[in-house]
Amino acid sequence: MKAILTTTAMTLALAAPAMAQSAMDTDGDGNVTLEELQVAFPDATTDTFAAIDTDADGVLSDVELQAAVDAGLLPAG
Ligand SMILES: [Ca+2]
Ligand SMILES: [Ca+2]
């Protein structure tokens, strides 16, 4: 799963411009926290966050969010 997500993230990083993150990053620091994720997705849990946070740095990058949408962890748009 992690390898698949990483591969997807790398592919999307080349193919897709930033989209999902900017809407969720309410404080504009360039990363999406669990709290910011839950604003957009109130049903998101810490398990969901951990599954999306593939590099485990505690925040979600645009690449990680795009990969999550692509993997069906989050609804698109
Ligand atoms: Ca933020
Ligand atoms: Ca991360």
Descriptive overview:
The chain is mainly α. The protein has one domain: Recoverin, domain 1 (Orthogonal Bundle), CATH 1.10.238. 56% of the residues lie in helices and 0% in strands. The chain is built from five helices and no strands. The termini are far apart. One calcium ion binds next to loops.
Question: Which stretches of 5+ consecutive residues score pLDDT under 50?
Answer: 14-18
- List each distinct ligand once: calcium ion
| Number of helical elements | 5
DSSP summary, beta strand count: 0
How many distinct domains?
Answer: 1
Specify the overall morphology. Answer: globular
**CATH architecture annotation:** Orthogonal Bundle
Strand content: under 5%
CATH topology: Recoverin, domain 1
Main structural class: mainly alpha
Top-tier CATH class: Mainly Alpha
User: Roughly what percent helix?
Assistant: 55-70%
What characterizes the major β-sheet? none
Q: What Rg, in angstroms, do the CA atoms define?
A: 11 Å
Q: Quaternary status of these chains?
A: single chain
Would you summarize the structure shown here?
The protein is mainly alpha-helical and 77 residues long.
